[in-house]
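As agreed, record copied across for absentees:
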Amino acid sequence: MASVKVVHFKSKKFSDGTSPILLRVIIDRVVKYYKLGDTYKCKFYPKINGDPDPRYKWNPDAGSFNSNFTNSSTANRNIRKRWAEAEGIIIDLENTNPDYSHDDFKAEFIQKEKRIYVLAYMDYLIERMLATENIGNAEVYRTCRNVFKKFTTDDIQFTEIKPKLLNQFIESCQKRGLKKNTINNYLRTLRAVCKKAMKEEGLKYYPFENFDRWKDLKEETDKRALSKEEMLKIVQFEAPEGSDQFHAVRYFTFMYITYGLNFADLAKLTGKNLKKADGVTIIRYNRSKGGKRYEIPLDETGIAIVKYYQKLNPESKYIFPILNEDIHITPEQIKTRIKTAIKKTNSVLKKIAIELEIEDKVTTYVARHTFATVLYKDGENPGMISEMLGHSNLQTTLTYLKSFDHSAKLSAGKKLL
């Protein structure tokens, strides 16, 4: 016969005067105590005239904390779960191994004792990313963590993530008006966290084993590219020197002629990124997204923009007046500043587009789409465009370009009538 109970183990005292809450297991009259996973503890206060001392936060009869214990509901829920797990192990052992001992129980119970909580583990991963200056991924994980926290309220174990819970999470996101791709990204981040826990922490449960809603949560995003004529309108837009419009046009132009240079990479360019190769001035840098190295030759327009800003800010290590090395020091500060600058630049570009009667939404990222489609429509070899985009294979480039080529579809469609 065996019995299981959660007790206040008063025989052991910590330096702060508290004693631990342990699982007491009796098997064949042999008594042993096991940790519950979390270190729950409180001070013991004897009864007063037969009544419980109100300062005593443990209820020995119920095997749970009283309401005056901090986070008592969460603690009691976790204790009940471990208690139930222990009782379940005892029942299984009695059915499969009548001669079981504490060693058999311990082998099962300790294996289940390592509980990995989702939010806590994500916090741990985020700290690691920040320590290695992987700010982009840290932000992605932090955003996902915060959204999931709003849904669950309390932290939960990975083993509690079932298809039903995932569907409820999706529904809660939909009620908040989040787009399909945004929800999809949150789920993919959660999946990546699960796989990391399986690889590094020995998690054996995979919550996404039977999850089949990926296709339901994916929608094609509208890729925007300007025509060459629209692009030239922006490049030639006249604005007062030093104004927000003046800088926005030059940033956008530089990104366009440097093969769709990412705004974050534009902001981080320094004089050290300028090199000479075969008598040509190039910018050599590692892309923020993915870390791949790029070498891009500068034409006369690009060189003129660089020289203008170097003359404007001769003391700055950065070419463009976006980052300040005396203010934006940490990776977080740099990331925040770039986000603010992108938002401001996009706002200015929007106003310029309206003034130029350009119907499409113009953002910094449109420069990358536009450079590729302009070359493609002008007959440039797709292989060259693929190399300039930094794609690993030509098929990726062809798929990318065809998503913009509405003129070819229109031409083909005219043959129908």
